[in-house]
Design a protein that fits this description.
By secondary structure, the protein is an alpha+beta fold. The two termini are 32 Å apart. α1 packs parallel to α2 and α3 crosses α6. The strands form five sheets. Strands 1, 4, 5, 6, 7, 8, 11, 12, 13 and 14 form a ten-stranded mixed β-sheet that branches. The chain is built from seven helices and 22 strands. The protein binds zinc ion. Zinc ion binds next to loops.
């Protein structure tokens, strides 16, 4: 048994309301960071990462199989680099299994690319009780993808629902019917539950979106092909949603040709400052430099500096729209110099979440982790400005617990 203190959710703004697409600067790591930060923002102890000792990331779309996703994940979440990270390949049942098995201080995150979304559950000493009801692990690989990345779909929905999920649910022998079903289309969920809420995703994150959709205690059923896990959650947990309204994906131009190569020396040098959004504060006079500099720009001291977290809000000091085609960088995009609140530091960042040309001097925004480029196959993460004006999110407000309005007939396809 475990206790769920908070649930955080994130949906990219692109695509349809019930089927989102990841933006060109998003991957499973950036999606997971957004959901994880939402979950941690409500932590009673306050501040990101209070008391987190383990992060479990469940996905079938991990960006790197070698090279590591854990360090960017911890940096983006603002967690120290001695936190254990488990990168787990799995779908909705695996994410639900991770929740019930987790010790207090664990942040379980599920993240998916198609449909895109991420959700996180912070396991603590208090909160909604989650207890395993049953689990069935079977194999019917109707969709499959190997280490070569090549996917195959046998495409037999009837076989999948009747011999796959149908048999799994039958063997579970649930005494109490589920109130939410994760991992399947809404049509199939309706055959298993009386009035299940629609969920915007079907992968690993679906199990956590399902917990977030509870309006009271009940059984959450998570399915993937022929496997299923059922968990009873005692009450609706606190949910913090980062779910902007959906809009049409941007039309961007990809330029063929060799990409700009990565410099791993520069990557290593910039990593902590860039991914933790932190400036170097001069040990002598305290002046901030972003990125940090060997020699202080104010007093000239070369005696060292310490990383200091930067504010994540600011206003546009200057902005330019870039149309020049460069291989590896989808165009057009906007580059902004953002003046950060209170500290007087200006940073050059890309604009995200808004079409090029729609951001003006003086606009307010938030700095969010994004994949600013992929160089030599390596995701290059950094921060981008998400303009406040892009967040016209009627459903994006805090909900505590999840509103019944999360139900949408015909969604989840
Ligand atoms: Zn100085």
């Amino acid at each position: 048994m475990s206790r769920i203190e908070t649930v955080g959710t994130y949906l990219p703004p692109w695509g349809q309301q019930w089927r989102r697409e990841a933006g060109p600067d998003e991957d499973v790591v950036t999606l997971a960071v957004a959901a994880g930060r939402a979950a941690l923002s409500r932590h009673p102890a306050g501040g990101a990462g209070a008391g987190v000792t383990t992060v479990v990331l469940v996905s079938r779309d991990l960006p790197l199989l070698e090279g590591g996703n854990s360090a960017p994940l911890l940096a983006g979440l603002g967690l120290p680099d001695d936190v254990q990270v488990v990168e787990q390949v799995g779908g909705a049942p695996a994410a639900l299994d991770a929740v019930v098995a987790a010790a207090p201080g664990t942040l379980v995150i599920g993240a998916d690319l198609v449909p895109a979304g991420a959700a996180a559950a912070l396991i603590g000493a208090d909160g909604a009780e989650a207890e395993l009801v049953g689990r069935i692990v079977r194999s019917l690989p109707i969709r499959s993808r190997g280490a070569d990345g090549i996917g195959r779909d046998y495409h037999d929905p009837r076989l999948e629902s009747q011999r796959g999920g149908g048999v799994a649910v039958e063997r579970l022998g649930l005494v109490e019917p589920p109130v939410v079903v994760a991992g399947v289309a809404l049509k199939q969920a309706r055959a298993l539950a009386a009035d299940p809420p629609a969920l915007p995703v079907t992968g690993a994150s679906a199990a956590l979106f399902a917990i977030g959709a509870l309006t009271g205690g009940g059984v959450v059923l998570a399915m993937e092909q022929a496997s299923a896990t059922a968990v009873r959650v005692g009450s609706a947990p606190v949910v913090r949603r980062d779910e902007p309204a959906a809009r049409a994906p941007l039309t961007l131009t990809q330029t063929p040709g060799p990409e700009i190569a990565i410099s791993l020396a520069a990557y290593e040098r910039a990593f902590d400052s860039k991914l933790r959004w932190a400036a170097g504060a001069c040990d002598g006079c305290g002046t901030l430099a972003f990125p940090p500099r060997y020699r202080c720009i104010a007093c000239g001291s070369e005696d060292g500096w310490s990383l200091t977290a930067l504010p994540r809000a600011g206003s546009v000091y200057s902005v330019v729209n870039v149309h020049v085609p460069v291989p590896g960088l989808p165009t057009p995009y906007s580059l902004a110099i953002v003046e950060l609140d209170e500290v007087g530091v200006r940073a050059l960042v890309k604009v995200t979440g808004a079409p090029a040309g729609t951001t003006s001097i003086g606009d307010r925004g938030t700095l969010v982790l994004r994949r600013v480029a992929v160089r030599s196959g390596v995701p290059d993460y950094g921060y981008a400005l998400l303009p406040d004006a892009s967040l016209s999110a009627p459903d994006g407000a805090d909900t505590e617990p999840a509103p019944a309005g999360a139900r949408a007939p015909g969604g989840n396809r």
